[in-house]
Amino acid sequence: MRLTVLILFLGFLFLNVNAQKKEVIYLWPGKVPGEQKEKLPPVISSPGADNVIRYEEVTNPLIEVYLPEASANKGAGVVVCPGGAYRILAYNKEGTEIAEWLNRLGYAAFVLQYRVPDKREGALQDAQRAIRIVRANASRWNIDPGKVGIMGFSAGGSLSARSATQFNRRTYTPVDKTDSLSCRPAFALLIYPAYLDQGPGNTLTPELTLTPETPPFFIFQTADDTYGNSAIVMTGALRMAKIPVELHVLPSGGHGYGLRPGKEAAETWPLLAEKWLKKITE
Asked: What does the pLDDT read at residue 241?
């Protein structure tokens, strides 16, 4: 009995030591642009029966750095945007678990804690700043600054699409020399994205401006998702603008499944995304 307890304790200690090795970079060295509240640790809810850790309020945005094994490093990085209706962040299911998956594939991952609740402009500022910070530090993480993309789920998919279409819009006053770098992601992956069809008659959301510089997209959706029209509208607009896009639609699966096993959609999109990522980052 004592031996079992000791083993469990050592295992817990080992996991905690590993967890502490994750580098954290706060996005804003001074005042957070447009933020009225002081910088505080995020408000985090305890996981419920669904084992989802929810960040209910973020006032001091950051990226959490996940690096692959050096021998597997493919030299590309992905900023990961969890979803949560812009009200919360489903931080483990659509953030850290995704980062660990990307690491297994050989990609560096940067989980973005963007501002919530209900701070869409602040979230875009955070995403732009995060991409620039990753580029500024690319050499020490052994990634190509030209191969930094973005990936998001649900509202995080909306944020990723906004980042990939509004990179020429200055959303905040430059803070330091990092802000001289481009915030254009090299590619974008949208998994069950939301809020992309908020134009008149459920057309493309007006802020999503497509130009020849818009990067290539990978989009995955299920037909029975309440937000399923977002993927269809976005894909159609990208197609008309002659922007490379790969769309996959399954008949069922709903919304918010991440990559947890048990649903066909959750087990299908990672395989398709892996193939696309390999092709787009070669």
From this structure: 98
Closest by CA position to 62, among listed 116, 119, 111? 111
Is the distance from CB of 230 to CB of 195 less than 8 angstroms? Answer: yes
The residue type at 159: L
> What is d(CA 156, CA 169) in angstroms, rounded to the nearest whole number?
19
Nearest residue to 219 (alpha-carbon basis) of 239, 202, 199: 239
Q: What is the pLDDT of residue 21?
A: 60
162 closest CA partner among 212, 215, 222, 201? 215
List, for residues 255-273, the tens digit of each pLDDT value.
999 999 999 999 999 999 9
- Give yes or no for a contact between 138 and 181, defined as CB atoms under 8 angstroms apart: no
